[in-house]
TrEMBL record:
One of its GO terms (cellular component) is cytosol. Keywords: Carbohydrate metabolism, Isomerase. Its EC number is 5.1.3.9. InterPro entries: Aldolase_TIM (IPR013785), NanE (IPR007260), RibuloseP-bd_barrel (IPR011060). One of its GO terms (molecular function) is N-acylglucosamine-6-phosphate 2-epimerase activity. GO terms for biological process: carbohydrate metabolic process; N-acetylmannosamine catabolic process; N-acetylneuraminate catabolic process. Pathway: Amino-sugar metabolism; N-acetylneuraminate degradation; D-fructose 6-phosphate from N-acetylneuraminate: step 3/5. This is Putative N-acetylmannosamine-6-phosphate 2-epimerase. Coiled coil: none annotated. The keyword Coiled coil does not apply. It comes from Collinsella aerofaciens. Belongs to the NanE family. Converts N-acetylmannosamine-6-phosphate (ManNAc-6-P) to N-acetylglucosamine-6-phosphate (GlcNAc-6-P).
Amino acid sequence: MTVDPLIQSLKGKLVVSVQAYMGEPLRTPETMAQMSRACELGGAAAIRCQGLADIAAIKGRCEVPVIGLWKDGHEGVYITPTLRHARACVAAGADIVAIDATDRPRPDGKSVEDTFRPLHEEGVLLMADCATIEDIRRAVDMGFDLVSTTLSHGVAAIDCTMADGPDLPLLRQATEEFPGLPIICEGRVHTPEEARAAIDAGAWAVVVGTAITHPTSITSWFKAALEA
């Protein structure tokens, strides 16, 4: 597998996921762009973000690559669930598009391969958000540019506690089966030590979101510790 230079530039680096949920105070594209720029200044090698307005705003503020996705819904396949969603992310400026790479039913009735193939033929760099080793194997076989453990935790990031750590067993299994391929650790990475452990386990790069960019969750962790 030939690794694209943009993907190569992420090796051993930190990617920061900058997202806010509907109804939250920070849920505006300008705020997400400002936070992304702050993360870039701190050393983020790329920004992962969701929504067309956020992608466009962050591309206008940051120089690092943007991994874009479009969350549509809250259950089942909702991370860039269709070809239409993926192409819209490209049009908004995403350098890489992340899509749900599980084999669950999609809103348009198509398979993940039906979504992947035309985008791949168009030269779009694609990140596979996976839940299981079977998802990862399928994504590697298809030829995804990046493969991630994003969905292995099974719940929204804000529903995880600080005690929940990254899925290092899945990460190790994937990196041992596919040495040298861009396997990304994403999900429940809450401390610098956990990020380092992911790299030591073979991760190509590490995505950290909630622990850097979601102050509501971070505040709740401190509050819980004081009340324990």
